Amino acid sequence: MAFEISLRDQVVLITGVSSGIGAGVAAMFAKAGATVSGCARANKESKSIHQFIQCVKDEGANVLYTETDVTNPNDLEHLVERTIAHFGRLDILISNAGVNIFEGVTNCSEERWEYNLDLNLTSHWRLSKLCKPYLEKSENGCIIIMTSNHAFSSIPGCFPYNVTKTALTGLVRAMAIELSPGIRTVGLAPGFIDTAGNNEWFNSFPDPEAERQRTINLHPVKKIGTVEEVGAFCIFLSSKWASFASGTTYLLDGGRSAIMQD
Ligand SMILES: NC(=O)c1ccc[n+]([C@@H]2O[C@H](COP(=O)([O-])OP(=O)(O)OC[C@H]3O[C@@H](n4cnc5c(N)ncnc54)[C@H](OP(=O)(O)O)[C@@H]3O)[C@@H](O)[C@H]2O)c1
Known about the structure:
Elements: E1 11-15, H1 20-31, E2 35-40, H2 47-58, E3 63-67, H3 73-87, E4 92-95, H4 110-135, E5 142-146, H5 161-178, E6 184-190, H6 196-203, H7 208-217, H8 227-237, E7 249-252
Parallel strand pairs: 1-2, 1-4, 2-3, 4-5, 5-6, 6-7
Helix pairs in contact: 1-2, 1-8, 3-4, 4-5, 6-7
């Protein structure tokens, strides 16, 4: 029999499903049979949310969408309550929503610092606490925090984003210690992933294709990652096959950080 991971009967809550990694991860969890509760700020009537809902339904999985600003504690409470009211349980949290605030150490204003810390760090802690009582009831309670390769090394100007992502590795450790044995907590630190946002970044260069190729060449595997690969990694990490994985943030960067810069 082929090795298979099925998440049938599992309910996963994923933040930031309106685009990029969150949308891709949601599609992969639906393929694995999970019931998907997703959120973002996007209006439920928007094209991106229609796509999210359709994509999960196409796999025959149950789906719920809740408009949520993860920096708003009331919205987070509503999100968790609504998920439980609809599906009666919660097994996996993928806390993914985040933004790149690249201001630099000297230029960054107090407002931008606070906004980025609130969204990229505090919201993950708040949401995890709200999910805790339900995840503890699951036999497979698991939290995956989406951090970044910037948690381990960075490039000039990526402050305060890199600070928030580094801090998340500490949050992962603290929750792995204090929420266990009922809940495992792991971090996932993607490197360069092929998303619309990164495509826009390539398009900001005079020769976007040349910049894409230059970026690909920085990676020993000679490619950039896909949202499906991030989703598949999350599926493994949240499955019973990863029951010994907790407290670690896993880097998924195509070997880029393995190259010594000299
Ligand atoms: N793409 C990469 O190469 C890469 C690499 C490393 C790490 N990451 C991390 O992966 C995560 C997703 O990134 P991405 O590239 O997929 O970015 P993206 O395409 O911009 O998606 C971000 C998602 O977060 C949501 N979001 C933003 N602010 C929110 C808020 N206040 N409340 C609720 N939802 C909010 C957005 O939806 P709305 O705008 O509709 O709210 C969107 O669905 C982030 O944590 C990012 O740091 C990405």
